[in-house]
Design goal:
Elements: H1 2-19, H2 23-27, H3 35-45, H4 51-59, E1 76-77, H5 80-93, E2 102-103, E3 116-121, E4 127-131, E5 142-146, E6 152-153, E7 155-157, H6 160-173
Parallel strand pairs: 2-6
Antiparallel strand pairs: 1-3, 3-4, 4-5, 5-7
């Protein structure tokens, strides 16, 4: 798992460096998370973090949030302390039954689910989440977007590593 996570980080950096030799510097990557950091996240959110996320975060604990270049798509990867802050905000801001939600099979039809882990954001109130509470049709660890102003919830990938691979391939065709 750790080797695959390291390879994905290398691919992200190599891909971005093709067009910008300062890409890695502009990512403002933080040092890897410790097992204690990850355990603190699990305790704060009351979830078990999928192994892929643990492996990815052991390499880099997100990005510093200062004029940072996106790691994939239009997303910045939140450090653990920010995941907790964003999750807490979403817990307070969105009642799970606030809206009628159009959810793809596999996703709980909720406006917000406390078992979603908001690991990345676009800076506009939308979050990339790891789903630790899918329906029977879903998979623990599947990736979905939480749109703050759109009721649609869909699976972007069956797991985080696949999501990163998909995002890197999309960028090749742009």
């Amino acid at each position: 798992m750790e080797t695959q996570a390291q390879k994905l980080w290398e691919q992200i950096i190599a891909k971005g460096s093709v067009d910008d030799h300062q890409f890695e510097t502009k990512l403002h990557l933080q040092s890897g998370a410790t097992d204690q950091d990850i355990a603190g996240l699990e305790d704060a959110l009351g979830v078990v973090i999928p192994e892929q996320i643990k492996a990815f975060y052991r390499i880099h604990n997100g990005q510093q949030q200062i004029e940072t270049t996106c790691f994939v798509r239009n997303l910045t990867l939140s450090p653990i302390h920010e995941i907790i802050e964003n999750w807490t905000f979403l817990q307070e801001e969105f009642d799970p039954e606030d809206w009628e939600v159009d959810a793809q099979p596999g996703v709980q039809p909720l406006a917000w689910n406390s078992k979603w882990i908001p690991i990345a954001s676009n800076g506009g109130g939308d979050y990339l989440c790891i789903d630790t509470d899918p329906t029977e049709e879903g998979t623990i660890g599947q990736v979905l977007y939480f749109w703050h102003d759109w009721e649609y919830r869909s699976v972007e990938a069956s797991d985080f590593f696949k999501f990163v691979e998909i995002a890197l391939q999309e960028e090749e065709t742009d």
